[in-house]
Design the sequence.
């Protein structure tokens, strides 16, 4: 799928470049998959640009390398795509921060900010891209102990939810994203890619409850584990990624994060919110999965 979209881009730009004239400028938006500062370029899963192109993966260059500052995999950006006769580039890049007017994520963000101000030691810590993710161990829907370390050499995508979430645009959408990942990477699930869904509410979401929740989403336990465990262990894990949550009148107020961990156990992306599509998340996972092939090829050259 990714290769088809890249080939579509080449054909599109080639056909456009045949017409001489002034540069064409399009407003665009997408999810950053890879940053190559040395080559002044980004790999972006772009959304559809009406009247110009469908959604596709695009390698994009910048003329001013300073525009790449602060951009990392998993960042949503808005930019101007400039198409000239024989080349294209992007400019006026703006990081699109996740902003929510919904009660749960907005309250979580505000209380997280207050915690940083009033008691910095208790506030969740936010990891940086490339940091090693500490091992953790929880219980899956089959009541089996699952540790992150057992997936060494595989890409791990994880997200957080609770089974009686009342907001369909949030927990429901996040779970549906994983269902789409399971479908897209069906042949690689369990072997190269593992999905972990972790509950914010382990007191209610026991392994039996998580098993029922998994059936709703057709989660195959070979590659998609739904995890629960003692609240202190869940809190410790959430703190690694700067995630806040707490009970609120029978429901859970929580922030939204989807995390991708590479084959070496390092943080590849930590995406806040729900504004990216399932296709964009899949494009990001695909990009991280291909790193293994690159590393293997390089290792073979030195044997």
Sequence:
């Amino acid at each position: 799928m990714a290769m088809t979209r890249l080939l579509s881009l080449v054909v599109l730009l080639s056909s456009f470049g045949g017409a001489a004239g002034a540069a064409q400028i399009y407003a665009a938006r997408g999810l950053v998959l890879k940053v190559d500062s040395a080559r002044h370029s980004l790999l972006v899963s772009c959304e559809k640009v009406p009247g110009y192109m469908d959604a596709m993966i695009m390698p994009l260059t910048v003329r001013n390398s300073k525009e790449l500052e602060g951009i990392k995999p998993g960042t949503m950006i808005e930019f101007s795509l400039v198409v000239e006769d024989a080349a294209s580039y992007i400019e006026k890049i703006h990081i699109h921060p996740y902003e929510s007017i919904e009660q749960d994520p907005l309250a979580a963000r505000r209380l997280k900010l207050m915690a940083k101000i009033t008691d910095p030691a208790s506030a969740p810590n936010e990891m940086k891209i490339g940091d090693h993710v500490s091992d953790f161990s929880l219980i899956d829907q089959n009541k089996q102990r699952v540790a992150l370390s057992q997936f060494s050499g595989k890409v791990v995508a994880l997200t957080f939810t609770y089974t009686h979430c009342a907001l369909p645009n949030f927990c429901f959408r996040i779970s549906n994203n994983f269902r789409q990942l399971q479908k897209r990477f069906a042949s690689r699930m369990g072997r190269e890619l593992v999905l972990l869904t972790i509950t914010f509410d382990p007191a209610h979401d026991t392994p039996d409850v998580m098993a029922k929740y998994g059936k709703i989403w057709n989660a195959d336990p070979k590659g998609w584990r739904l995890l629960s465990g003692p609240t202190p262990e869940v809190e410790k894990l959430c703190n690694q990624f700067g995630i806040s949550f707490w009970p609120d009148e029978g429901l859970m107020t929580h922030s939204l994060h989807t995390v991708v961990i590479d084959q070496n156990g390092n943080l590849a992306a930590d995406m806040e919110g729900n504004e990216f599509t399932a296709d964009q998340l899949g494009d990001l996972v695909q990009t991280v999965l291909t790193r293994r092939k690159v590393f293997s090829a390089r290792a073979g050259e030195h044997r």
Notes: Residues 10-19, 101-110, 294-303 have pLDDT under 50 and may be disordered. DSSP finds six helices and 14 strands in the chain. The helical segments are 2-17, 103-118, 168-184, 207-216, 231-240, 278-301.
